[in-house]
Specification:
alpha+beta
């Protein structure tokens, strides 16, 4: 199963282009096509939640290339979550990220 993460924000319209562009850049760095999907958003308590799914191919490149070096976490899922969150942050995003499945 592909890694699945839930992102949340209070300003979806501002964040979705930033997140999409950042993931496209990560996809290009990994030299992978169709490396991620962004699922339909839903709102709850003033927040907008949306899931992103990373392809196994892109995950394998991230894990084996050393990109996650320095990412915090004891397990690989935690490290990948922290890496994706930090990567999005460096690209200007302010979303919160939570691992759903890995």
């Amino acid at each position: 199963m592909n890694p699945l993460f839930q992102l949340s924000t209070r300003s979806y319209e501002t964040e979705i282009p930033i997140v999409t562009k950042a993931l496209q850049e990560l996809e290009a760095e990994c030299k992978v096509k169709d490396g991620f999907t962004v699922e339909k958003p839903f709102e709850k308590f003033g927040w907008t939640f949306f899931n992103i799914q990373i392809s196994m191919e892109m995950t394998e490149v991230i894990e084996s290339s050393g990109m996650m070096k320095g990412a915090l976490g004891f397990k690989i899922g935690e490290q990948l979550t922290n890496f994706i969150g930090h990567y999005l942050e460096t690209k200007g995003s302010n979303v919160r990220i939570k691992k759903i499945n890995y």
